[in-house]
Each structure stands twice: as C-alpha cells, then as structure tokens.
Design brief:
Layout lengths: L15 H18 L12 E6 L5 H12 L3 E5 L13 H8 L5 E6 L4 H8 L4 E6 L5 H15 L6 E5 L6 H12 L3 E5 L8 H9 L3 E4 L3 H6 L3 E4 L10 H7 L7 H4 L7 E3 L20 H21 L4
Helix pairs in contact: 1-5, 1-11, 2-11, 3-4, 5-6, 5-11
Length: about 300
C-alpha cells in the first residue's frame, strides 16, 4: 500500500513491515540529521506544525527534520495566539491549515484530537501526541534507539516504569514491542497501571507480559529500562498527584545490579525520576534517543510526502 499520503494517528496504523521500512530509512537519514550531509528530499514541501500543547523535543525535531531535508515549516507554537482562543473549532482550524501546507503535524491535549483532525484534513496528518492517547513518532524513535543498541527488537526484555496510565508513550510502545516479540515487564505506582484496553490488546497479540513492583528486581534482568515521569498535568486533583510523586528514582545505586548492556531510556522531560549522575554511565541512552527523533521523523515525512525512502 505504501505510506505516501497516509495519516499516522497511532502506531497501529502501521504494519510491522512499514515500521521496519521507516527504521531502515531512519538509519540512512542519520548523516542528514547530524549535518554531515545536505538533503533535498523535501525541497518544495511545506509542513504545518500545529502544537496546542507545550513541546520541546517533538516540535523542534520535526522542524529540524523538515529543514535539514530542504523543506519549510509554518508553526503554531502558542495556542493562545491562534483563533481557537476566539472559539474556533479544531475541525475548522485543521480544515484551514490543510489548505496551506502539504502535511499537518498535530500536538493536542485532548485524546482523539488527531483522529478528528485527520477526518477534517485533505492532507496527511501526523499525530505528535494527543492527550493521554497515542504518540506514534515517539514510539518509532524509541524502537530505533533499542534497535541501534541491540541490533534487534525481538527477544528484548523491556521494563516500562512509571506512569503507565496517562503516559501515552508507553501505550504506543507496548503495542509495538509486542508486535516485534519483546518481553514486557510493567512497574508502576498504585493507581497508575496500564489501562485495561491496552493490556487487553497485548493479550490479544500473545505478548509476554508480567508485573513487578520491586525496583531492584525490575532492573536486574532487564535489557531496557524505559522510565516515564508522573505527569502532573494529567491529574485533575493535585492531592492525587502528590500521593504518587517521587515514587521511584533511578540512580547509580539502583543500576549497580543491572546488566552491563542495560540501557536507560526516557521520553523526557525528566523531573527527578532519573538522577543526573546516570548521565555519565554507559547505561544512559535518553539523549541519543532524543536525537534519533530527527532521522526517524525525516524518514517518516519523506515516505509520506514523496513516497521515497532515504
């Protein structure tokens, strides 16, 4: 079927073979992402970045990806400066934006917003995060990070640690890892476990999933420790947030029993759950992970807008 002209709203929109194609292409995009090569794959293309929720890495890596490949961006980075503040609906905003550029990258605080946008737009829509829903490009760069470190995704033991209820990154990632045959270990504070619908989908895929509350047991046998922050902004009641804030912290002492090849990943920003002292250990992979967002998004945009891989 190919990816040209396609929406990417959730990781389930992509078949395993399509994910593999994106990952292959992203590896070839690395010299363009780090500036070693100049690219023109997106020459003449205009990408609209519509970000109605704060973002650093996702927005800037998409901008970098477009511009490194010779394209251009128009950007909404402050929702208060858009007509939605005047009461314009998301449908109308997206309908208007689709007439300006060749694709829309949307970040929105409401789950389901990206699917609504895709229905309103006659140009491809890429979901850059919708509330506690999906974040497919984060999943792609997470997979790229693991694949770069281990050469494969099959058979890895991946611990998903932290806020698994509201953390949209782990919802998408858990599904993708199950598709590739990784083993999942879930570890979360009380009340922040993986939603039942996500867990059910993993069961349907025949995924090997277990739960473990003890952090030292989690770390000991893992290949990947994927840490997420507890997201204050997803809690309606600040007191509920305070009950679970600071429930876990990864530092050198925690990692003392880890395998030498263990990598610690984090979608960032971190707010205390990974100590700065981990940065200088061979386990730290989160800054490399953030960089790989550029070649991954380069590959995805190139495939969607031109139908061609790197």
């Amino acid at each position: 079927m190919g990816l040209k002209g396609r929406d990417v709203i959730g990781i389930r929109d992509l078949a395993r073979e399509e994910i593999e194609e994106i990952l292959r292409s992203s590896r070839r995009m690395i010299p363009y992402a780090d500036g070693s090569k100049s690219g023109s794959q997106l020459d003449g293309k205009l990408v609209t970045l519509a970000f109605f929720e704060p973002s650093t890495r996702t927005r800037l890596s998409f901008e970098t990806a477009v511009q490194r490949l010779g394209g251009r961006c128009i950007t909404i980075a402050d929702p208060s400066a858009s007509s939605m503040r005047k009461g314009e609906s998301l449908h109308d905003t997206i309908r208007m934006l689709s007439s300006y550029g060749d694709a829309i990258v949307l970040r929105h605080p409401n789950e389901g917003a990206a699917r609504l946008a895709a229905a309103a737009s006659d140009k491809p829509v890429i979901n850059a995060g919708d509330g506690a829903g999906q974040h497919p490009t984060q999943t792609l760069l997470d997979l790229a990070t693991m694949q770069e470190a281990f050469g494969t995704l099959t058979g890895l033991k991946v611990v998903l640690l932290g806020d698994l209820k509201f953390g949209r990154t782990v919802h998408s990632l858990a599904h993708a890892l199950a598709v590739f045959g990784a083993e999942l270990v879930l570890s979360s504070p009380t009340g922040l476990g993986l939603p039942e619908d996500v867990r059910s989908s993993l069961d349907q895929l025949g995924a090997k999933v277990s739960e473990e509350e003890q952090l030292h047991r989690v770390v000991r046998d893992a290949d990947v420790l994927y840490v997420t922050r507890i997201q204050r902004e997803r809690f309606a009641d600040p007191l509920e947030y305070q009950k679970v804030a600071g429930s876990y912290r990864i530092d050198r002492a925690v990692l003392a029993s880890a395998k030498s090849r263990l990598i610690v990943m984090h979608p960032l920003p971190r707010t205390g759950e990974v100590a700065p002292e981990v940065d200088t250990t061979p386990h730290a992979a989160y800054f490399r992970q953030a960089f790989l967002g550029v070649p991954v998004r380069m590959a995805l945009l190139s495939l969607i807008l031109t139908g061609k891989a790197a």
